[in-house]
Amino acid sequence: MAPNRERVWVGLFVVIAAAVLSGTAVAVWGGMGRSGVPHHVYFKFSGGVQPGTAVRYGGLKVGTVQRVRIDPGDSTRIEVDLVVDPGTPLKTDSVAKLSSLSPLSDNYIEISTGTEQAALVPPGGVLNSTESVGIAQVGDAIQSLVPQIQETLQKLTLNLDSLQITVGRANDLLNDRNRSNIGQALARANDLLNDRNRSSLSQSLNNFNELLSDSRPKVSSGLTSMNDATARLAPLLDDVRRTSARADQMLSNLDSALSENRPDLRVSMSELREVLANSKTVMDQLQGIINQNTANIDEIMENMRLSVDNIRVLTEAIKSRPSSLIRGVNVKERRPGGIQK
């Protein structure tokens, strides 16, 4: 009885193992051979994707990768054939990319949901794809930036050294002795601008303004009189010139009227004519001098007006900003440490 019982148990175990193995084979074969909608997608970098890799639509698993190979038509990209469940709404604006659930997990293909108004991709169609940056690519990018970072750090170090030197020089310039000199200079400036000096300066400016006010009418009157005299002298010179011309004409007529031979009279007439010619020349020269001096007088008057205006502006500026007078004082140059040059 015992051997028969053992044979029964062994036979039962073999039957159960065969059933489990058959069920597993059927399940695996059914999962791999189930019907689905095929599509294609192309990547420059496949990221370890292989047959059986999951395909997710909006994070939901909807299919698997069937084949991965180099594209026969373009050797610079990888062709990935995948199958998704029927009814998966892959849109023409859906985008496939490599993704992973965690930094340590394997990559899978993630397909975005697209937009509602976009059309569906037909079976066997090509999906849009975008390249993903892997950890290795990020490391390469960081490695390429290392020389630039080192160069930037070196420049920063040099700038910090220059800044330290500048700060040291500034501290040398602002030592106790120089601070004392600056304080004394400011105190002297305050002494120059005390109430008494301001009052004296204001009084002097007022006196100067009064002097200008008193002198301005006299200067203006004198210039006006000079202009009037010049204007009156011009007609007088014209009258003298006309009189000389008439006398010359009269002498010519008289010379022609005298037919008798009188040498003394002719000599007198010649001398008189010479005197008239000289007087005419003198009058022309006098007229030219007057014309030239008239322009000079106008220029002098304009310069005097500008000078008066400039003095008025200076007076108002000194009244409003008395401290500007200090800028005109030549202060001896001081070196760091109070050593005078």
What's the quick description here?
With 341 residues, the chain is of the alpha/beta class. The chain is built from five helices and seven strands, in the order αβββββββαααα.
Structure commentary:
- A 7-stranded mixed sheet has the order 1-4-3-2-6-5-7, with no helix packed on it.
- The chain folds into 3 domains: 35-134; 148-188; 197-328.
- Helices cover 61% and strands 12% of the residues.
- The chain is elongated.
- It contains 5 helices and 7 strands.
- It has 341 residues and is α/β, with parallel strands linked by helices.
- The chain has helices spanning 2-32, 135-173, 176-192, 195-257, 263-320, and strands at 37-43, 54-57, 60-70, 78-84, 95-100, 107-111, 128-129.
Give the helix proportion (percent range): 55-70%
Share of β-strand residues: 5-15%
The class by helix and strand makeup works out as alpha/beta
Overall number of domains: 3
Oligomer state equals single chain
Structure summary, number of beta strands: 7
Features:
alpha/beta, 7 strands, 3 domains, 5 helices, 61% helix, 341 residues
Map the helices and strands:
Layout: H1 2-32, E1 37-43, E2 54-57, E3 60-70, E4 78-84, E5 95-100, E6 107-111, E7 128-129, H2 135-173, H3 176-192, H4 195-257, H5 263-320
Parallel strand pairs: 2-6, 5-7
Antiparallel strand pairs: 1-4, 2-3, 3-4, 5-6
Helix pairs in contact: 4-5
